[in-house]
């Protein structure tokens, strides 16, 4: 089967992409389906060996039972411990690097009260600087909720950079995109072709109309603008600078990588 997974922080448009790729024939497109990666996230963080067991005994047999040639899963938990074991099993997936400005990701999670180490959804779904293999964040226990979320967003940026090289070197395909870009029909078609999921027999006129209908809907989006009630009453720039000072010794090139992908936030 032709497998594709996302490397993303969440709050990036995964539900919209799941809907888009569901339009394609011979393709199973799902959003965080069972057996779900997040169910075992904490166990995998404490015992990385279990990720391979989960893949062998649960996830891959379930995927193999499907009748379609293409499988695409939009889960932001796949990149939190499951890619390496999948490659060790000899399976090279395609990756969709679904990105968004780290500040916007952090604000979106803040509005939903999902904070690493401090809230229920943050503990269940998000990475923590407490776990091995994450970007070291000195003094994280005294940092604000927003700073933990900003750290989380740039940790996923780091994984997008590193995992893309890993999969490319193994012969896989990597696509770098934003949900906003996929509002454009031609960009969606280009992505589908790159992932080899666009059947030549597809009626492109029908696909264009279906894409237009989906792109007109706000799928699980942020309130625009995020109201004062759900926005941290802090100087975001100053808070972010403290995070960068804490993480840069461990990865001096990461900030350049991130700033090249996004316009610098103004103070």
Describe the protein's architecture and organization.
This protein is an alpha/beta fold. Helices cover 45% and strands 9% of the residues. The chain has helices at 14-21, 41-46, 49-64, 83-88, 102-111, 120-125, 145-169, 185-194, 204-215, 236-247, 254-261; strands spanning 2-7, 27-30, 70-73, 94-98, 174-177. It has a five-stranded parallel β-sheet. α7 crosses α10. The longest helix has 25 residues, at 145-169.
Identify the strand order in the major beta sheet.
2-3-1-4-5
Taken from the alpha-carbon principal axes, the silhouette is globular
Counting DSSP H or I runs of 4 or more residues, the number of helices is 11
Ends distance? 47 Å
SSE sequence, one letter per element: EHEHHEHEHHHEHHHH
The structural class is alpha/beta
Q: What proportion of the residues is helical, as a percent range? A: 40-55%
Low-confidence stretches: none
Mean model confidence by pLDDT: 93
Radius of gyration: 19 Å
Strand content: 5-15%
Short description:
The protein is of the alpha/beta class. The chain is built from eleven helices and five strands. Helix content is 45%, strand content 9%.
């Amino acid at each position: 089967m032709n497998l594709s997974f996302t490397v993303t922080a969440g709050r990036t448009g995964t539900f919209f992409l799941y809907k888009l790729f569901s339009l394609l024939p011979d393709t199973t497109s799902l959003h965080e389906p069972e057996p779900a990666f997040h169910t075992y996230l904490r166990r995998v963080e404490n015992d990385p060996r279990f990720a391979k067991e989960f893949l062998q005994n649960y996830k891959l047999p379930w995927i193999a039972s499907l009748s379609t040639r293409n499988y695409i899963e939009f889960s932001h938990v796949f990149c939190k411990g499951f890619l390496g074991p999948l490659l060790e099993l000899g399976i090279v997936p395609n990756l969709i690097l679904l990105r968004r400005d780290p500040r916007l990701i952090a604000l979106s999670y803040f509005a939903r009260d999902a904070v690493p180490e401090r809230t229920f959804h943050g503990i269940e779904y998000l990475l923590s600087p407490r776990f091995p293999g994450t970007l070291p964040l000195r003094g994280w226990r005294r940092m604000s909720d927003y700073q933990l979320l900003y750290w989380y967003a740039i940790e996923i940026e780091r994984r997008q950079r590193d995992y893309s090289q890993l999969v490319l070197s193994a012969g896989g395909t990597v696509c770098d995109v934003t949900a906003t870009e996929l509002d454009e029909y031609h960009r969606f078609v280009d992505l589908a072709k790159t992932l080899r999921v666009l059947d030549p027999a597809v009626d492109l006129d029908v696909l264009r109309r279906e894409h237009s209908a989906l792109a007109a809907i706000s799928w699980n989006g942020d309130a625009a603008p995020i109201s004062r009630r759900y926005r941290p009453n802090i100087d975001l720039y100053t808070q972010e600078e403290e995070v960068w000072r804490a993480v840069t010794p461990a990865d001096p090139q990461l900030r350049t990588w991130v700033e090249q992908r996004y316009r610098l936030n103004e103070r």
